[in-house]
Write a structure and sequence with these properties.
By secondary structure, the protein is of the alpha/beta class. Helix content is 50%, strand content 15%. It has 13 helices and 14 strands. It has helices spanning 3-68, 75-175, 189-198, 245-260, 277-281, 295-309, 369-380, 416-419, 462-465, 469-493, 505-509, 511-515, 533-548, and strands spanning 178-184, 209-213, 216-221, 229-234, 237-239, 265-271, 315-325, 328-331, 364-366, 385-386, 394-395, 398-407, 446-455, 519-526. Strands 1, 5, 6, 7, 8, 9, 12, 13 and 14 form a 9-stranded mixed sheet that branches. Strands 2-3-4 form a 3-stranded antiparallel sheet, covered by helices on one side. The chain has a two-stranded antiparallel ribbon with strand order 10-11. It is rod-shaped, with a radius of gyration of 61 Å. The N and C termini lie far apart (206 Å). The protein binds adenosine-5'-diphosphate and magnesium ion (MG). Residues 277-278, 395, 455 line the site of magnesium ion. Residues 185-186, 188, 271, 273-279, 391, 393-395, 458, 525 line the site of adenosine-5'-diphosphate (ADP). Residues 20-47 form a coiled coil. ATP binds at residues 271-278. InterPro entries: Kinesin-like_fam, Kinesin_motor_CS, Kinesin_motor_dom, Kinesin_motor_dom_sf, P-loop_NTPase.
Length: 567
């Protein structure tokens, strides 16, 4: 066989082999596909069987529903009938929904507007807040500044008040802690009468005592048959017969300021009977009496006026009124003394029961000047008086009116401690007049200062006043107590170690003001008449001696005698 044939045979053999391989693979794929389809077919059969079961159940249920339907109409027909109704309902529901939506939108819009308003208000408030805060801070700092300046002003006021107090006190001390004024009373009709009888020389002028100026008294009497009298006396102040009660009180007034500054004050009228002591000290106290008010009612008015100027200090005033009669101390405010109103006052027997020797006098609280004056006027009805040849209503006792100024109990007023006078802090003023009921000193109460107003009984010459019996005994006690007073002043003026306070009840009662550092004002009352000249000279001599007494800081730590200016 040719080679060409062999080669083509081989080629065809290869092609046949390839083709067979292809066919074999196609057959294999077909077989696999058949297996898949058979599997799907089985699954579909299975599903079909399930659907049939389900549709069978549905048909049964449908048949049951149909059987329940009253018209036994087929469901499709009833659905067709219900459809328009449902559609209408659906439409209505749609409309409702639409309306609801619209109103919801409306509400939403309103809410949003409200919210926006609120928000803008909040924003505005937040924006304003810093401004308000700034204004508040400004006010706060302004209030702080004002408070500070108020404190400064208060401190300065307090400082000025203290300075004023010190200066006022210095002024009073410069005038003298013991001051002596002299008052010449005007001539009275009774003087003429008496002078006419007593004097053989009717051509001589009745008036022999003159106020040369407001510090000098001249006693001048040129007697033809006797040695002439020509004496001059100097005092801190001399009042002529024409000078009014008001003028006299004007010089007393600064002492009341000292009283409220915490200094004890004593004003004492000294002189012959009938020379104007009671007139000067009291004046007419009741409405029946005519004339100008004296020192006691005016001082009461001034005291309460000063207290009312500073109500925060809560100062109170208690008054005690005693008389020293025949060397006994009688409490004119004591209850047992009151029944004596019915009888002639001084003639009522003064039993031992009415005596309150050195026992605390009754202290009556007074709330006004009127109370004070009424109390003084009421108690004066009990004071011992008697008609003498010199004076128809001669006081037979020394009258001592004490006004005790107290600060409110501790813890009552913050100023209590501060308001106490420099001399009185930590101790009761005056000391001896410890209070008795009623109006006794309250617990914790501090005595601020004491004011003593003294109307002494008149010194007199028994021969001139022509008294006898009980009146003579009274005169003797009066003169002895006045002599004791002169002795005390003399001892003080001479800086003696022993001061004879205990020689009389009068000097015992006045011991604090005489020996202490109280402001003491002695008002000498003298008659202008020649018939009284001897007693006038004695009174002026007493005043000159009193001027020598100087105590306290102004006196250089004790009693420095002033150079006497009297001739
Ligand atoms: P004393 O108390 O000194 O014994 P009084 O004060 O009772 O004296 O005065 C005696 C009389 O003198 C009284 O009638 C009184 O009115 C009158 N008298 C005293 N001083 C004055 C005066 N300065 N101005 C007017 N009358 C006075
Ligand atoms: Mg009198």
């Amino acid at each position: 066989m040719p080679a060409q044939d062999v080669a083509s045979q081989r080629r065809w053999g290869r092609i046949s082999e390839q083709r067979a391989g292809q066919l074999q693979r196609q057959v294999q794929a077909k077989e696999e596909r058949i297996v898949e389809l058979e599997t799907e077919n089985a699954v579909l059969h299975l599903r079909l069987a399930q659907y049939r079961g389900t549709s069978g159940k549905g048909a049964g249920a449908a048949t049951q529903l149909c059987s329940q339907c009253p018209e036994r109409e087929p469901p499709r027909r009833s659905a067709a009938l219900a459809a328009p109704q449902l559609w209408r309902r659906v439409q209505a529901l749609k409309q409702d929904t639409e309306a609801l939506r619209a109103s919801s939108l409306e509400v939403f819009r309103a809410c949003r507007e409200h919210l926006q308003d609120g928000l803008s208000e909040v924003v505005a408030a937040v924006q304003r807040a810093p401004l308000c805060h700034e204004a508040l801070l400004a006010w706060q700092s302004k209030a702080g500044r004002l408070e500070r300046s108020l404190q400064e002003v208060s401190a300065r006021y307090e400082l000025e008040r203290q300075k004023r107090k010190v200066l006022h006190n210095r002024l009073v001390e410069l005038k003298g802690n013991v001051r002596v004024h002299c008052r010449i009373r005007p001539p009275l009709p009774s003087d003429e009468e008496f002078d006419g009888q007593a004097s053989q020389d009717s051509s001589a002028p009745a008036g022999v005592v003159h106020a040369v100026d407001d510090e000098t008294v001249l006693v001048r009497w040129d007697r033809p048959a006797h040695r002439s009298i020509h004496k001059t006396y100097s005092f801190e102040r001399v009042y002529g017969p024409a000078e009014s009660q008001q003028v006299v009180f004007a010089d007393v007034c600064p002492l009341l300021t000292s009283l409220l500054d915490g200094y004890n004050v004593c004003i004492l009228a000294y002189g012959q009977t009938g020379c104007g002591k009671s007139y000067t000290m009291l004046g007419p106290l009741s409405k029946d009496e005519r004339g100008d008010l004296g020192i006691v009612p005016r001082a009461a008015g001034e005291l309460f006026r000063l207290i009312s100027e500073n109500p925060s200090r809560s100062l109170k005033v208690d008054v005690s009124i005693v008389e020293v009669y025949n060397d006994d101390i009688l409490d004119l405010l004591a209850n047992e003394r009151r029944p004596a109103v019915s009888g002639p006052p001084w003639e009522a027997p003064m039993t031992k029961a009415t005596k309150r020797e050195m026992s605390p006098p009754t202290r009556a609280p007074v709330r006004s000047a009127e109370d004070f004056i009424a109390l003084a006027a009421g108690s004066l009805r009990f004071q011992a008086r008697r008609a003498t040849r010199v004076h128809a209503r001669s006081s037979r006792s020394h009258l001592i009116i004490t006004a005790t100024v107290t600060a409110a109990p501790a813890g009552g007023s913050p100023e209590d401690g501060q308001s106490l006078g420099p001399r009185l802090q930590g101790r009761p003023a005056g000391g001896r007049a410890s209070p008795g009921p009623p109006g006794a000193q309250r617990v914790g109460e501090q005595v601020h200062a004491k004011l003593q107003l003294v109307d002494l009984a008149g010194s007199e010459c028994a021969g001139v006043s022509a008294v006898t019996g009980a009146a003579l005994r009274e005169t003797s006690f009066i003169n002895r107590s006045l002599a004791a007073l002169a002795d005390v002043l003399g001892a003080l003026a001479e800086h003696r170690d022993h001061i004879p306070y205990r020689n009389s009840q009068l000097t015992r009662v006045l011991q604090d003001v005489l020996g202490g550092d109280a402001k003491l004002l002695v008002i000498l009352c003298v008659s202008p008449c020649r018939k009284h000249v001897a007693e006038t000279l004695r009174v002026l001599g007493f005043g000159a001696q009193a001027r020598h007494v100087q105590r306290g800081p102004a006196g250089g730590g004790g009693a420095a005698a002033r150079k006497p200016r009297n001739q």
